[in-house]
Amino acid sequence: MELFALYGLNFIYGIATLGLIVLGLAVVFGLLGVMNMAHGEFVMLGAYSVLIVQGQGLPYFLSFPLAVLICGFVGYLVEWSMIRHLYTRPFDTLLATWGIAILIRKTVEVIFGRGYQSVNQTVTGTVDILGVDYPAYRLVVFVCAVTLLVGLFIWYRRSNTGARIKAMIANPELAQAMGINTARLARGTFVFGVCMAGLAGALIAPLVRVEPYMGLDYLLSSFFILVVGGLGTLEGLFIGSSVIGGVDVAVSAFFDKTSGYLAVLVISILFLWLRPEGLYARR
Amino acid sequence: MNRRKFLVSSLATATMGSTFAAALARKASAADPVRVGVLIPMSGPAGLFGPSCQNCANMAANEINAKGGIDGRRVELVFADVGGPPADATQAALKLWKGEKVDAFVGMHDSAVRAALTGLFKGQVPYIYTPVYEGGECSPGTFVLGETPQQQLAPVILWFNKERGASKWYLIGNDYNWPRDTNKAAKEYINRFGGSVVGEEYLPFTVDNFDSSLAKIKDSGANAVLITLVGGASVGFSRAYQSFGLADQAMRLGTLIEENTLLGIGAENSQNLYSSAGYFRNIDTPAAKEFAARYTKAFGADAAVLNALGESCYEGITFLDALATKAKSYDVKKMDRSSLGLTFSSPRGTSTMIDRHVSQDIFLAQADGVDFKVIETFKNVGPGNNCG
Amino acid sequence: MRAVSILAILGLLVVPFVGDSFMAYQLGLYLLFGIVGQGIALCWGRAGFLPLGQALFFGIGAYISGYALKTYGDSYVALIPFMLLAILIPGILAGIIGALVFSRSVGSGPYFSLITLAVSMVGFQLANSLEWLTGGFNGLTRIPGLPGIDTYETLYFVIVPALALSTLLVAYILRSPFGQLLAAISQNEERAQFFGFKTSSLKALAFGISAAIAGFAGALYAPHQGIVTPQAVGFLLSAELVIWTAVGGRSTLWGPVVGAVVIGFLASELRDIFQYWEIVVALVFIGVVLKFPDGIVGAIASVTTRLRRPVSTADGNRRKQTAPPREQVSETALVFEDIFVQVGPVKILDGLTFSLDEKNITCLIGPNGAGKTSVFNAMTGKLPIRAGNIQWGGTSVTGKQGFEMTRLGIGRKFQVPSVFNDLTISQNIDIAIWSNRLRFTDLFLTSPYSWTSGILKQVEDVFPFLKVSNKKAGDLSQGQRQMLEFAMTIMTEPALLLLDEPCAGLSTAETHEMIGAIEAFNAGGDMTTVIIEHDMQVVERLADKVLVMSQGRLLAEGSVADIKADPAVQAVYGGGTK
Question: What DSSP letter does each residue of C559-571 carry, written as one string?
């Protein structure tokens, strides 16, 4: 029973963190159609901002604004210098952002070195939930992730900017004719997306290994989640995270981790092949 | 190998030798430096060991040169990055061998690269392989300094059984040869000392979520976990492990958790964590202390942190010194013969070569924050049977 | 082009004598990667889809060859069947993957690329896990060289001819009708389908060939390296192969080779002296993607021939041979029975029923949103039909795809002029002539370039601009492109011709020309024509019969006069006609 509760908690937590990490790519790829291969590197930049803050002896939560600042700056630069020329060239975007990923990785390596970084935990210990000792910091991450996702969901549905983004996606020319500055809106959306990735990185940094190559882990699973869930909606993001996370947990529990990983790959291939619009597509 | 195959391969060796061995056949004079190719990862997943390794190798060369070189010849190191796939590594090695005309190689890299290199060298150039590995390398001209699973585990598992009551082991590693071979050895020792294996699991390299493994460990009732995850996976696993409070249930033992990995794991997550290896930065012997002090003096306090893999590069160069001095030659056959029973000293202590492997002291260390504290020393542990 | 290739191969052959054998050995590896790149270029530069997991096929070839060399390393008799397998198995595997994936959807979006990437990741994991088969992480080791060939001295002289062979093969494919069809597909896959080509199979074939080429290079990689590890099938090598191809030039024959060699040597030189050499490569790579989409070789385009603008086998008088006859379709009866089509919540066709069975001109009219174009789309497999039945010549054709409809004698012209912009007029005409004629073997022969047919002469008489055959279709005016597409559709000699607003965007003079052409080609009375048209003047001039649609249903049918008198039609059009 206790084991059951543990698996259940892990599953829910897994979905929330996956959703958190994918969010940035969901915005950039799902809304703008930019296959950002440097997504993981923005998560990595977020994690390193925790390191900078802790290195200065400042409180952990200051790493959130710093992550947004760093990713916003780098994202703006990238959009301005490259992405804006490539919105209609998907393959080229994919390749150019792959180059950007290498650049970011290597730059971080020059500054911080190649080794693992030690990020301190501010919230340690475990909390008793349903008879399970559950890591306390995970609850913090869970609450932050859910707040962020729900907040964004409501904002996107209700706000003016959300409506403008929807208009831009549906018909860029018409949107422009209606006085929407699509170039600026697209840039804003891109920068917002990579900032979300950075924020996710700052949140998960105390739980994972922090080093220049960490981003690769998050890139492909993010793509697969979006493909399974469907692009352009938060519902899809949630469904995708559940399916990918669920398959991994279930197969890993019954067989082993390698089978779990292979199962995720196979599911992703099946979706890409048979149902590329995902389970919950934007209408 | 049948007769015909043998003929073909020796023919190939002969033709290849005619060009490549030109460098070796050259008459060595006292004025010519000894050129040593040092093959270490500077990029890729193992790239984080590059800097400490490079420092250690340079330090060894400087010290040898300060005392007058090897048999009167200066040592000159030529580095090459072998952090990429084996195809890149063989090209890099070939460049040093053929282009830079190096007399010997010292390598600190993964086993796939080693397999590629022994296939390339075919025993025509001395090759010293320094890191911890899975055992069983028997190619001529290949001298192995690293710890084998037998060395790291046989005495240590017995010790845990006696001193810490570790009886129920859970084995977790990455899904490849080294962890599987290590665990094969571990199971033998665990059974021998009356313990049991309550779980065995291999994770793909890409894994970043360890929850299901942790649940299994919790459920298995294990009181000891043997970790053969490498690098990043080891860090991620250990962080998650501690956050679930599992450190109180079961102690952790790693055979490749060195100072860098421990730094990544972090001080809050290293409770009840042990590591077994032939070297730690904090070994409490005069030789090791002096070595660490010289390292800090040469490269400053901010230099790449000392660890077993980095130190093994120092040892590789000094071992070459000892071997070449004894053999008075860089000819592989002569070196092979001289290596038998060769005794040499290093920051690890005094070691002896048998079967081109070494019997050496093994240290068991417990993590204390982000540092290791050696709690037990096992003297002169043999490498097990590697060539039979 | 041919001269450049021969010079390049000769140049490569003297490298070991000018440089040293080590340099040649090193170069050999990059040339093998270059061969894989040529396959990628065939897919990406020519057929327009990007394979992101090409290392999988390279690695499979390498593993098979490595296994064979280890087991039967002393006899070519035993080796050669395995070497063939090392080429065939990757080729067939890719062909199957391609056929499965491409048949699901038209187009070559990034999803195909992601699938190939994921498949290569599966391969990498299996290569690591299946230790009994692959040797696991440590790989398949101690692979001997090819019998009698020294790996370091003479293998290079096997690799260079292999490169020559691959170059020859790819060059030949690019010049063949198959290559021209691939170019057409990458520019406008849907149009190619409506000429009766099963584009998914052609793309799968191209992918299979590229994988076979990769397997071929892999088969030589095993003896060259003496070891094959999972990295040989992995994602990182796949990505690198794409980078080399892009930097060298994805739409050129030699670009991938140049890319692999230049970056390979650059990396090998920089790796040990400059730790951050990857930054240099990344910057070069980004620069190429942004500024020189055709890569290094593409930038020096004057020296080489581009793949994208295929060389047609000369022009002018090449059409000397009467094309083989087509299967004649003489159906007339088209029947729509109670057709329902719905997309999301919107009912597009709502129980549409009508039938046509005379060889004359019918105009389909109706207000915007009535579902006129959807009638064509439902008939040619572009829209899923929820209920009802479409019959053509007495047999049901519900749910058939575009290429199948073309093979049943139905020709379609789209509303927006839809031609192959980067092909010349003459090459566009080739594809129309090949429609419903080209058999599998003809794909790789040069004879189809000499085909001509009686209708070509008629078409050229009606549209004289078609005789300027070297002009690219994309350089024509909008009106001329409409006419080119019309002419190409006519050249398929359909029994049922569907025209979607053929006069849209035409000047008054051009409209008259087009109307004249439609009349002329219908004069023989051997074709049923359905025209969607807004312009009532055109309708009055052409229509033998008019169908009026409104809100997905048939509102009225009859002669022009009947329709004009119909009060229901007047109500829909608000009492006025345009």
Answer: -HHHHHH-HHHHH
ipTM here: 0.89
- Cβ within 8 Å of B, A 81-110: none
Does the CA dihedral C74-C80-C84-C87 come out positive or negative? positive
Strand blocks (E) in C103-230: none
pLDDT 10s digits, C76-102: 999 999 999 999 999 999 999 999 999
How far C277 CA sits from the closest chain A CA (Å)? 9
Number of domains present in the structure of chain C: 2
Residues 210-229 of A with CB under 8 A from C: 220, 223-224, 227
In angstroms, rounded to a whole number, what is the distance separating the alpha carbons of residues C61 and C87? 6
Does B79 reside within a domain? Answer: yes
The verdict on a CB contact (< 8 Å) between C122 and A265 is: yes
Q: Running DSSP on this structure, what letter comes out for residue A31?
A: I
Domain with residue B229: its CATH number is 3.40.50.2300
The Cα of B85 is separated from the nearest Cα of chain C by a number of Å equal to 6
> Tell me: the pLDDT tens digits for C390-449?
999 888 888 888 898 899 999 999 988 899 999 999 999 999 999 999 999 999 999 999
Name every chain B residue with its beta carbon within 8 A of the beta carbon of C270: none
In sequence order, which residues have a C-beta less than 8 Å from that of residue C99 and are 6 or more positions away? Answer: C200, C201, C204
Query: C269 CA to chain A: closest CA distance, Å?
Result: 18
Q: Which pLDDT value is given to residue C304?
A: 47
Domain enclosing residue B371, as ranges: 149-277+366-381
Q: Does B374 touch chain A (CB under 8 A)?
A: no
User: Residue C148 belongs to what domain range?
Assistant: 2-235
Q: Which of C141, C228, C277 to mutate to test the interface with B (most CBs of B within 10 A)?
A: C141
Kindly state whether residues C214 and C353 are assigned to the same domain. Answer: no
Q: Give kind and range of the element (H or E) at residue C360.
A: none
Euclidean distance between CA atoms B362 and B364, whole angstroms: 7
